[in-house]
Amino acid sequence: MSRGSPILKLTQRENVVLGLIAEGFTDREIAEQLSFSISTARKHRENVLGKFQFRKSSQLVIQYFILNAEALKKTIPGTLPTLARFANVKF
């Protein structure tokens, strides 16, 4: 299986947690939002990281927007950014 394969099956709860991670929520905030413990939020994050074979949550954010391109269109008015728009940006 290749890294970040979109064929993976996430549970409904993992999809919700992935969306909250993409929105920048911490484990504590995810736990509060979904009414469960911080350790459960951490475990969901770890499970999603493991399924995609990722090591960092930032990779999950990128994967989320790859899988949910419509969500990205809703967050950016107008068109999607192109690489040319970021040519002079230092990361």
From TrEMBL:
InterPro entries (alphabetical): Sig_transdc_resp-reg_C-effctor, Tscrpt_reg_LuxR_C, WH-like_DNA-bd_sf
Gene3D superfamilies, A to Z: Winged helix-like DNA-binding domain superfamily/Winged helix DNA-binding domain (1.10.10.10)
HTH luxR-type domain: residues covered: 3-68
One Gene Ontology molecular-function label: DNA binding
Superkingdom of the organism of origin: Bacteria
Keywords: DNA-binding, Transcription, Transcription regulation
Protein's GO biological process: regulation of DNA-templated transcription
Name of this chain's protein: Response regulator transcription factor
Organism: Trinickia violacea
